[in-house]
Amino acid sequence: MAAPPVVAVRRSPVASLLESLETLADPTRLRLLRLLERHELEVAALCDILQLPQSTVSRHLKLLSGQGWLDSRPRGTTRLYRTRAEPDPAARRLWLVSRDQTAGWPTARQDDLRLQRRLSRRSPAEAFFAGAAGRWDRMREEAYGRAFTDAALLGLLPGGWVVADLGCGTGHAAAALSPHVGRVVGVDQSAAMLKAARKRVAGLANVELRPGRLEALPMEDGTCDGALLLLALTYLEEPAAALREMARILRPGGRGVVADLLRHDRDDFRRRMGQRGFGFAPEELKQMMEAAGLEGAACRELPPEPGARGPALLLSTARRPLKPQKERS
């Protein structure tokens, strides 16, 4: 007796829809699809960009591949993944909506910055010289150390400047600036931080440490040529007030520099670090500096360094006007 014919069971459109909705409801899979739609990437790169363990990334890649979202191909001992060129039309429509709705997602922006850093290392020239450059860096560091590069850059500062290190913490920046400027004034509200800073700058005659709040600096108007706010604003209830104080203590033409967190949505990180805010968008920080009375504000994102586990940073600079607003108008 002949065996009955095998009849393929076609999945219903509703079942396919529900599966696609379930897939796109997971933030990790959304992040993976956003990255793999534009670039072909291996698991190690995805782990670095997403800051997730390999087991988690591999599990989501397996699910996406099994559902027809991804294609992969071998390369050496690893595999490269990318979104399928011709996915299910209904799933594709859902993805386009999902991609549009996540365009302003801070997590996606953080992923993009880490992706840019990875890709910059993968350009043809970078790939060709990667081995030699790696060996040269090690050789140079073994022979000369690393501090000379920072010293050379700091040497570009005018030697007579007075620089305020606002939120000086343990005095790392103040100690680095000391040999290159006339005077450094560090201000911090934390007694414990100031105690650590005093140990670090002991013997540096041109460094002065003062207790004080960044929203009400214990400094006279127009007494500094430069001022730094390094990773300080996210700890403040009123960051705008600290920027106004920075502008107040600068001399006409003096420069203010802010380095802080690019806006993110990692509440676990924020709570672990004791921060009040989630960072700033570049245009937001630029506008805050201008509203504080500074001009020529410029702000740029800083791609995370290899191995850095926190959110990406941004750097903003501006100067105090040479003339008051009334005189210029």
Question: How would you describe this protein?
Answer:
The chain has 329 residues and is of the alpha/beta class. 46% of the residues lie in helices and 19% in strands. The chain has helices at 13-24, 27-38, 43-50, 54-66, 89-101, 106-120, 124-144, 147-154, 172-177, 191-201, 239-249, 267-272, 282-291, 325-328, and strands spanning 41-42, 70-75, 78-83, 162-166, 183-188, 207-211, 224-230, 250-261, 295-302, 313-319. The chain has a 7-stranded mixed beta sheet, sandwiched between helices. Strands 1-3-2 form a 3-stranded antiparallel beta sheet. A hairpin with a 2-residue loop joins strand 2 (70-75) and strand 3. Helix 3 packs across helix 6 (106-120).
How many separate domains make up the residues?
2
Unreliable residue stretches: 125-134
- Average pLDDT across residues? 87
Strand proportion, as a percent range, falls in 15-25%
**What top-tier CATH class of the largest domain fits best?**
Alpha Beta
Helix content: 40-55%
Radius of gyration (Å): 26 Å
CATH homology-level superfamily of the largest domain: Vaccinia Virus protein VP39
Estimated structural class: alpha/beta
In the CATH hierarchy, the architecture of the largest domain is: 3-Layer(aba) Sandwich
Task: Using the coordinates shown, work out and report the CATH topology of the largest domain.
Answer: Rossmann fold
The dominant shape is elongated
